[in-house]
Write a structure and sequence with these properties.
The complex is a heterohexamer, with 3 copies of chain A (431 residues) and 3 copies of chain B (172 residues). With 431 residues, chain A is an alpha+beta fold. In chain A, 29% of the residues lie in helices and 23% in strands. Chain A contains 12 helices and 22 strands. In chain A, the strands form 4 sheets. In chain A, strands 13, 14, 15, 16, 17, 18, 19, 20 and 22 form a 9-stranded antiparallel β-sheet that branches. In chain A, a hairpin with a 3-residue loop joins strand 17 and strand 18. The radius of gyration of chain A is 22 Å and the shape is globular. Chain B has a 6-stranded mixed β-sheet. Chain B has 3 helices and 6 strands; from the N terminus they run H-H-E-E-H-E-E-E-E. With 172 residues, chain B is an alpha+beta fold. The chains are: A alpha+beta (431), B alpha+beta (172). Chains A and E meet through loops of A and loops of E. Bound molecules: FE2/S2 (inorganic) cluster (3 copies) and fe (iii) ion (3 copies). The site of one FE2/S2 (inorganic) cluster (FES) has 9 residues of chain A, from loops. One fe (iii) ion (FE) binds next to helix 5 of chain C.
């Protein structure tokens, strides 16, 4: 199939095959996940040498390890001898990774150190040639990203103008951020892009899908009261990375601090301090508003609500969602706990918001597969073509208000950039 | 048989029926009645289950991420969802079933308190063929209030690392 | 693969790949189910405006709706916005269908009426262009069929001579027919064609597969006594639609009314009335005999036993069987109940007959997949080539007696007509 | 403990053992003995479970399609199948297992009658690897006849919309 | 209620709790304590389940292949595995859960012995999403030793022909 | 893909796709399993006319039957009428196999004998042309092998020099061998070749993977004590069939007879008798050592430990393992029982050795699938190229000591011979 016919940015529609076709999915693994910078964790999860965690880049399981030299290493979690996984723990601390099958031992940098009965291997293997493949690793203010493509630009170039938005969450104070310990994982039958596009720009679903969750958490408020319709609200995107939300500076914090006032107090008390780092606009008007964001391709977060999550692909119609809670290191214990529990109350498998999203995405994925159904297009035309690059206040491509498909189309345009390129050379560095 | 055994058995039976009734309320989405079975200061906790090397194992830590860490207040907020009438994804309703087994009970530290444990299998089925299976155990502290048992504390151990269900619109 | 080599009507054999090959299955969805008139329900299931039910055409879920103008509409159950299913109930009554994800609302004719926050969409969508795709709908004496191919002939032409046989069930009295409320569904691991071909002509399996069921229901009778070998019994087919059975006029009613004499009384008392509409042959000799029938491609029924069922394809080796009970509107309540329960006793997941069929079809499906096994042909040669079109009494292609593969081959010939045609233009209108 | 609790507990135990024995009979295909545990006018009903919008929900309707709606007579007809020796698809036999939990019982309307409820998990396994799982609940009316309990009425709620099994060669 | 019923019920309760505790020990990998619940000459047998035509059916034969046919000695050898610290594939540990239902007990042939039966569902979950489900029944002989029950003989009927799990690092 | 690029015997590496690729798997069914002699049972399992068992050749289910003339017949277990399986029992005794669907009856040689209502078939079928396809059958000293390829060489030629090694297990006494009744089956998610290659030559994993099992069974011994490093230990292979092990003549028997001394007594008492048949080397030095062996492609065994097993393929990432226990017919009852139970203690789903293998193979299979991971090679280079054909004592290709990948590479070289050949004509008869 001709991929460029699957997406029509100009006319504002998308082909339904994107959400279930096996061939498209396998190409995504090759051309998108194998080339892109992907979120793998937060520095705070592996502070000490020997600390490690395991996660996925595309469908490849990797170890994210703090090497003894203090550097972070990311390498394939698959022995070069017969392929067995070499680390089965979610996290921990170790001096080396020893394979269960024949005892091949790898260092915290993935290098092959030796093996059981290694005397027999003398002269039969050049260990330096048989370590575990390392990915490039880079940190953006605590967030760890890795990439298996040596032709990819630097993480900074990959993020481009989007860093201005990331800073709103990552750079609120000198101490910086950390993750609450642990991770909430669950699996469901949806295409990974439904999660990514939803966080990229889908402000419209909030008022409808999440009406019940909003009412429950706010003791009866309608979404419109938490997230008022604001002509200044906006969609912003850069290099396919998306941010959408308002400017009231309060909506999501109000949601989070319902029944937990200490959260509101914490943030309000820090506004000025924040403003010194981020300026008035970001510290007082953007941060705190109801906002959702996706770092291309599959890492999303909600500033204010404090959830960060990766949509790990497990096949064309299967996702593993892994979610973390991010907090400022300077948060007092009561606020940490309040943020953690309020975050779980809204965005987790039992979260009052998340429950409704998953059901929608599963059924959209399944329905799009119908043989007649797949012949029809999906409408992505709202405010299509209205974004401008020259906004006086906001970097990136901007469109107002936030009720639009602008970011979603930018996301799929970037998807098309990757899917139709034979290598990074063909991918526009900046969008 | 002696009185001691008899009392022990009667207590076990009482707890068994407490759990059976609780299961019936949950399967019927009768959450108001369910919350009635709890103490005002109930703590309801379902931690995530991590895969750790045995040498790294430690007691489950309330500071880490969880599926549920609730007070009566937050449970009221959660269970209010179905009352709004706009929880679209709950319509048609889910078919829930709690199977409760392996009930054990013993006297608790304070008089009138009991430590009880049980295993569960929760089956959910909705729409044409969506299924979810969850198995695990519960460690409870029960309190006798005016001759009735109430749930004062519950720790739910779900035997999954990555939750193999699309959501948790259910309680164990 | 060359499809025409899969079926050899002349030599009377069929290739085993038909029953499990993924490629053949996907082509069936495109060339057969997407082109054919398919059973979607009975008018009695949606009598009032706003009444609806949901079912499948191929693997596409559709809403069958009674529009406010009284017409029946059949449209895709998948939102044009992101593809979510718009109706999750089996049946009900509604004024509109509102999507759970963003609140797009569709009328009972599938037209897009509006959406949550629709002010934002002003100027960005032409609602008239974005309704849910409607299928053509046509009723044959209460039975509703739908078709997604605009080139397909009318339902009447599609059924052709077969209507003469359908009338035996559908046209017994002025009041006409209705379905007992509800539907029995179950899923199993077989290819859908095994169900269709079995009801199309497989009288031979009854005496063997269903010996235990027959003995149990009749308190010890052998099948031969219920369904005597009759040289006049016949296979009839027209346009791939098949009917096979006897002429004793009593076998299936006897089976149904064992322990429930009111059924026998009801039918015997109505024979004359029936004869006025259908003539002696159909009313007294055909109706009531042990008969099975399949409307091409996947709708089957048993006159007398009162079961009607669709073999919904769920993949090359998976079926969802949906079964209904059809009765005459003039049936008194006790007879309705007796027919319903007797029908469930024989043909339902717990039915004494159906249980044995499912097991056979699952194991035939599974066994045919073997790599050596698939190289061998299946024998469909019994009385092959003996059917004649010029029968003085019976319309369609007729072969006697009913112990033969004639109908099965006619079914697969029709299957081949569809599978090898690039469009309806290449499909013989009449067979 | 008082006599009331004791009698209540004894009744619960009796019903629990009634169900346990019944499960054993069913798993052994001993259908004659199973029918012995029923009253002459027993009604055995397993309705289908429809997906309905909550606003359209209504009481389960005996007039609609069902998986089972049986009298003792029709159950005899059904269970006769295995006696014919020609139920080919039942040879080799299925491995059945009924797990019964959540037993509750209370006095019925008439003296000597009881309303009892229970949950079930039915596992079937046959041939090399065919599996079927069914979960649900049973609402029964039990009758005491000559000091023995008998099943007078049963409603089986199977928690599936489309039955996710090839057949129902089993009873709950 | 009479003393007979009472004693019967007390015995059932005792066996029920014996099984519940046993399940807890197994789920905790506390195999030393588990072996403590057995007699010195315990016999623990889990035969394979063959698919046979009914006409070829015969009693299960101890001479044929099995999953387990153990003495206390061999169980000690097996359960020693986790103590070596080098059972790599058991690290991280498996999440086990035994659900025990359908308990029945009756007096055995010798005084102080009992014949007890029960059904089980064993759920195992390990690593990210490995699952194993096993259902079956147990036929036991229990012996009362110094007022405590001990397992003297167990036959485990697992309801599978080809074991649908990668291994059996668990006991029923 | 070019298959010859998947395996590099010269450089000693293998492509990870071998262990999960669907296309490779389907080609294996066509080119390897459909052509090769495959183990189907032991003569002792079907001693009497009418005795039968069912098993798989590749994914084809077959009946292994003792025909009335005493010969062993192997034929497809799939009816030629609609394809239903004709025999559902694991084993038994019968006069014929009658299909459940329409009662077609087949003899114990697979010939079509007749059918229900066969009078109707008179003139419509030539029964002699419609029997169940028979495979070639041949026995090697009690072990039954079958082959569906008429071009394949004889079983003797197929086994070639390897028979010298088989005799060590099969030819210890006049009475010959038999299987303990029954079979232990279990399914897991691994590629079948991991089992085959492991038994073909993987002595290195024993000391690491099976450390805990060895310690438990031997009350604390390390593997090194049971299987001492011996420079004379060897890898032997012929035509892709592999044998690897030591020469101490005692290791595996010691393992087996721990807590069961009667086993040791039995074997030691028979050494001389064995030597008369097999010679000193095989009877006293080879037999009894820790040895593992694989008959190409998927039949493995452990001399001494007495387990024999087939790795039945169920898809690229699924195995059904079927295991039997082989004993000498002259064994007294106590020894039989001891061997059976000791064998189950080590090699069965609950076996202290087998448990660890399965976990390794599942995770190797799964990990190799990663999109980046699959780009890396697996190391099979230990002692690569050291085997010689001219050993004075041992037939076949020999390499010493047994710590090497020599047999594994020979196995994959043979795999490549089959996979790249268009027919047996292109397959070297001897390797
Ligand atoms: S597979 Fe890792 S050491 Fe062999
Ligand atoms: S998917 Fe239906 S409204 Fe958006
Ligand atoms: S399929 Fe075997 S007799 Fe018809
Ligand atoms: Fe959402
Ligand atoms: Fe039939
Ligand atoms: Fe091993």
């Amino acid at each position: 199939m001709d991929l460029s016919e699957l997406i029509n940015v100009k006319e504002g529609w998308i082909d339904r095959r994107l959400f279930w076709d096996q061939g498209i999915y396998e190409l995504e693994l090759e051309r998108l996940f194998a080339r892109s910078w992907l979120f793998v964790g937060h520095e705070s999860q592996i502070p000490k040498p020997g600390d490690f965690l395991t996660t996925y880049m595309g469908q490849d399981n990797v170890v994210v390890s703090r090497h003894k030299d203090g550097s972070v290493r990311v390498f394939l979690n698959s022995c070069v001898h017969r392929g067995n996984r070499i680390c089965f723990a979610d996290r921990g601390n170790t001096r080396s990774f020893v394979c269960n099958y024949h005892g091949w031992a790898y260092g915290t940098d993935g290098s092959l150190q030796g093996m059981h009965e290694d005397s027999h291997y003398e002269g039969w293997i050049d260990k330096s040639q048989w370590g575990l493949k390392n990915a490039r690793v880079s940190s953006y203010k605590g967030l760890l990203f890795a990439c298996f493509d040596s032709d990819a630009p630097s993480l900074d170039d990959f993020l481009g103008d989007y860093r201005w938005y990331l800073d709103i969450v990552l750079d609120q104070c000198d101490e910086g951020t950390e993750f609450i310990g642990g991770c909430v994982k669950n699996m469901f039958d949806a295409n990974w892009k439904f999660g990514a596009e939803n966080f990229a720009g889908d402000s419209l679903h909030v008022g409808w899908t999440h009406n019940s969750g909003t009412q429950s958490i706010t003791y009866g408020k309608q979404v419109g009261e938490v997230m008022p319709v604001d002509p200044q609200s906006f969609h912003a995107n850069a290099n396919g990375h998306c941010w959408e939300g308002g400017l009231d500076g309060i909506g999501s914090i109000a949601l989070l601090s319902s029944d937990r006032p200490c959260i509101m107090e914490y943030y309000q008390a820090r506004r000025e301090k924040m403003a010194k780092r981020l300026g008035e606009l970001r510290a007082k008007r953007i941060f705190g508003s109801v906002i959702s964001a996706t770092v291309f391709p599959n890492f999303s977060f909600l500033p204010g609500i404090a959830t960060m999550r990766a949509w790990l692909p497990k096949g064309p119609t299967r996702i593993e969602l892994r979610a973390w809670t991010i907090i400022n290191k300077d948060m007092p214990d009561d606020v940490r706990e309040a943020v953690r529990d309020a975050c779980m109350l809204s965005f987790a498998p039992a979260g009052l918001f998340e429950m409704d999203d998953g059901e929608n995405w599963e059924n959209a994925t399944r329905s799009n597969e119908g043989v007649i159904t797949r012949r029809g297009r999906l409408h992505y035309g709202l405010r299509n073509g209205t974004s401008r690059r020259d906004d006086p206040d906001l970097p990136g491509n901007i469109s107002r208000p936030m009720y639009s498909d602008v970011n979603q189309l930018a996301f799929y345009q970037r998807w098309l950039d990757f899917m139709t390129a034979s290598s990074w050379a063909d991918i526009p560095k900046s969008r | 048989m002696n009185q001691k055994t008899l009392d022990e058995m009667a207590l076990w039976y009482e707890v068994n029926q407490f759990y059976t009734r609780e299961a019936r309320l949950l399967d019927a989405e009768d959450y108001d009645a369910w919350l009635e079975t709890m103490t005002e200061d109930v703590s309801y906790w379902m931690p995530t289950r991590e895969n750790l090397f045995r040498r790294d194992e430690a007691a489950l830590d309330e500071q880490r991420m969880n599926f549920y860490r609730e007070s009566l207040t937050s449970l009221r907020v959660r269970t209010h969802r179905l009352k709004t009438g706009t929880a679209w994804s709950e319509n048609p309703r889910t078919r829930y079933r709690h199977l409760i087994t392996n009930v054990e009970v013993e006297a608790g530290d304070a008089p009138g308190t009991y430590r009880a444990s049980s295993n569960f299998l929760i089956y959910r089925n909705r729409l044409e063929r969506d299924e979810s299976w969850m198995v695990g155990a519960r460690e409870d502290v029960l309190l006798r209030v005016e001759d009735k048992l109430r749930l004062a504390k519950r720790t739910v151990l779900i035997d999954q690392n990555s939750l193999l269900s699309k959501n948790l619109n259910v309680y164990a």
